[in-house]
Amino acid sequence: MITVLSGGTGGAKFIQGLARVIAPDELTIIVNTGDDLTWWGLHVSPDIDSVNYGLAGLLSAERGWGIEGETFACLEAARHLGLPTWFQLGDRDLALHLARTEMLRSGKSLSEATAEITRQFGITAAVLPMTNDRVETRVLTSAGELSFQEYFVRERYQPAPLGVRYSGAEVAEPAPGVLRAIAEAEGIIIAPSNPITSVGPILSLPAVREALRKTQAPIAAISPIIGSAAVSGPAAALMRCAGFEVSFRGVAATYADFLDVIIADQRDAGSARSTDVFVQFCDTIMVSNDTKDALARAALSALDRARARELALVDSGASVGASS
Ligand code: FO1
Fold it and tell me: Which of 136, 185, 322, 162 is nearest to 243 (CA)?
């Protein structure tokens, strides 16, 4: 079993490739819920939905979230009724939030609701919310403290971030299956997701971080940073404000206490210098099914090599880890 930690649109795209390269029922995905919000009275879990839409072949390639070919008639009607519309729910997406909210209202946990939704989509991978408790990513900015979606969507990440906190994390328990998926995995991959706001909330659960430190499984992370810029979104500003260098080395540093190998983009191969972990270079930009599949294969081969301790440590004098 391969376990992936995922959040955001990069995570969903990566998992689409991985689920073509290995049998989906060999895959467990632990998903960020720090972005979840209550919108129009409905429970929305954007990162879980992006993973599910990706696995079900429904994900909008253009937006990276929501459903391909979606319509927004309800959103237009809501606008006329004076409801807030800065967070855009499509018509078919809305049906999913209605169904999930009804399951939660009837007493199901988010894990149970997610399992039922994945079953209905015909998904055989295990998709696990990181927790059934409420953990909320809060971004302290020059314009005050905002929820993640207020910062990301409403304010288009324009206010300068000053810090991030994960409200509720100290007392939250990992959802059923999460710790086992880390302890019993053959390999663990951290998707090319924002280390601070997509993976950070998962790692903010003390038991999860502890399980990652203890597991026998090799752990690889894919850098969402190329050079000193994020592939998309506010990862660079958020890493800087959390005190990390904006580079693949900085990404590795955020996972330093458990990481075995960082997968960095081949455009960074020339800049290799001392890091404390093994580095594997490859093309990390996912613009097509072929590039997603190739990145998934590269991640699996990095795990194999980390397992076999074949990778060369990147050091000023030493050879650079295999690139493919
Ligand atoms: N992202 C946007 O940039 N604008 C939106 O209006 C928006 C709505 C939305 C609705 C449902 C959903 O599942 C995702 C949505 N997203 C939207 C994406 C979402 O903000 C991101 O996927 C993550 O939360 C960031 O990782």
Answer: 162
